[in-house]
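Please decode residue identities from the backbone states below.
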């Protein structure tokens, strides 16, 4: 029966795949995600009670993986939801409650609220856990933290973790390595801003570097992406979160999220988040403007709500040059600090409703001091060494795909 299901499902899935994303090598082979390779894992799930960490990016073709696997008879006992919820309709930072999924009738347990990881009771009812979430390759994007939580629960309860891997749209490595004295919910690991790994590779790093409590090891099986290398461009078929709603915003995110530690808006409260920068006090310095408003499901109380912000419009910025450089853009931070008239307010989080202070976002206390002191980009980048180069060397041990 399962072989028959697999044969039926495969052409159904692949008929909805997006056009191929050829890399610099000139290949025209279509990138095939782990989830879309149903023949590689459907038989493996036969007879097993399945738990799943999934969200709106967890798809087979153009359909939710939970809906697809449920329809084809996989015994899904429970779904765990990360930030933004299983169906992806919760705002940034909003607590998400438990529920019964109306489409499948499967219990959904939120892991973004009071509960950080599945309990022993949750794990007792399953034989294997699936992790299928699209990451964007940044230290402060919380899905890698949730990966570690799931790995921890699996290790504690002797359960295997099946990772359905997906490409990293920001596959380069750059930024200061996190000073672990600044460890927080927006940075748990000693890695740079862009870590240059897929979820499957990062799971191997967590195991290999002993980052789980007590240096536990999680048994993992990775369904790797076909026809993929880290240098390839990859356009996400689904927005990974409400405020990363375009490919441009996804590619700008590593550079613009740093502004969440400042008084500068990144466009939350508009339909173009993470593609613009601005502040009401920059009137006269810039001609471009936007006005953040409350948008349910995206940003209910954005910074500078109902105030006209003036600044930079990066919606048409050439991302090819930025991505090929392999660098986070810190020139925008330098420029905006110089332009802002009230320097003492720029990094003052008592003025801000945003996610965290600049030290935790940057991963170092030096970055803020360097911006205030007027240091050049070259001087700032020099301070990231030798830790950044050491990370790049360490990373190579865990790569599943060519550079």
């Amino acid at each position: 029966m399962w072989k028959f299901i697999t044969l039926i499902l495969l052409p159904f899935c692949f008929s909805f795949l997006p056009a191929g994303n050829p890399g610099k090598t000139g290949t025209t082979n279509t990138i095939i995600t782990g989830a879309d390779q149903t023949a590689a894992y459907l038989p493996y799930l036969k007879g097993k009670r399945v738990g799943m960490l999934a969200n709106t990016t967890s798809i087979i073709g153009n359909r939710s993986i939970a809906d697809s696997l449920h329809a084809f008879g996989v015994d899904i006992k429970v779904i765990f939801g990360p930030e933004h919820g299983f169906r992806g309709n919760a705002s940034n930072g909003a607590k998400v409650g438990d529920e019964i999924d109306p489409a499948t009738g499967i219990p959904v347990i939120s892991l973004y609220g009071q509960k950080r990881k599945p309990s022993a009771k949750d794990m007792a009812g399953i034989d294997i856990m699936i992790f299928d979430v699209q990451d964007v390759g940044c230290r402060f994007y919380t899905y890698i933290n949730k990966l570690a939580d799931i790995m921890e629960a699996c290790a504690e309860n002797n359960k295997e973790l099946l990772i359905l891997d997906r490409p990293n749209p920001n596959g380069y490595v750059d930024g200061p390595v996190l000073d672990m004295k600044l460890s927080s919910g927006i940075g748990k690991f000693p890695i740079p801003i862009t870590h240059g790994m897929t979820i499957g590779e990062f799971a191997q790093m967590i195991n290999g570097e002993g980052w789980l409590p007590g240096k536990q090891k999680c048994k993992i099986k990775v369904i790797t992406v076909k026809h993929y290398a880290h240098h390839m461009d990859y356009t996400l078929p689904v927005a990974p979160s409400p405020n990363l709603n375009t490919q441009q915003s996804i590619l700008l995110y590593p550079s613009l999220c740093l502004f969440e530690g400042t008084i500068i808006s990144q466009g939350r409260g508009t339909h173009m988040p993470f593609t613009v920068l601005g502040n009401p006090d920059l009137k006269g310095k810039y001609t471009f403007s936007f006005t953040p408003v409350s948008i349910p499901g995206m940003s209910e109380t954005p910074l500078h709500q109902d105030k006209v912000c003036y600044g930079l419009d990066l919606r048409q910025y050439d991302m090819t040059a930025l991505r090929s450089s392999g660098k986070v853009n810190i020139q925008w931070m330098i420029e905006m600090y110089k332009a802002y008239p009230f320097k003492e307010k720029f990094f003052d989080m008592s003025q801000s409703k945003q996610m965290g202070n600049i030290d935790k976002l940057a991963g170092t206390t030096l970055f803020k001091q360097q911006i205030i002191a007027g240091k050049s980009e070259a001087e700032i980048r020099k301070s990231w060494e030798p830790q950044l180069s050491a990370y790049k060397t360490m990373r190579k041990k865990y790569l599943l795909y060519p550079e």
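Observation: The first strand starts at residue 50 and ends at 54.
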